[in-house]
Amino acid sequence: MVRIIIFTALISVALMIYTLIECARSGSQEVRSLPKPAWFAVIVFLPLIGAGLWFALGRPQKVANYNPQTSHAPDDDEDFLRQLEVWRRQQQRDSEQKAREEELKQRESKKQGDESAERPANESKDQNKNDGNGAASTEG
């Protein structure tokens, strides 16, 4: 019998603490039936009955009227929008850097291609000069 009384007292205290916290966290305009101080008195002086009355009559209803000013959509959050802008700028910088690197690679490959095309032409000119000089020296 004593165990049941202790268990009931613990449940009553836990329920009273929970309802007091919930009453304190709810807005003054959201509380129904009585003002907040009256609900605190009811919950403290009538622990089980007060908690039951709070849940039945005083607690704010979860289905509230839609208010676009208090909407918590991600596109209304300034921090989210700021972070999104930072992310977009970072993506743009990365794509510009990749484009510059690609352009640089293309320029280097084109330059190497031009140099390799010029080498055989220069080498053949040098060989022609040597052949011409060598032939002239042997004849003269």
What do you see in this structure?
The protein is built from 4 helices and no strands. The mean pLDDT is 80. Helix 1 (2-25) packs antiparallel against helix 2 (36-45). With 140 residues, it is mainly α.
Anisotropy-based shape = rod-shaped
* Mean of pLDDT: 80
Number of strands: 0
Radius of gyration: 43 Å
Order of helices and strands: HHHH
Number of helices: 4
Distance between the termini: 137 Å
Strand content: under 5%
Residue runs with pLDDT of under 50 for 5 or more positions: none
Main β sheet profile = none
What topology emerges from the helices and strands here?
Blueprint: H1 2-25, H2 36-45, H3 47-58, H4 78-139
Helix pairs in contact: 1-2, 1-3, 2-3
Name its key features.
rod-shaped; about 140 residues; single chain; mainly alpha
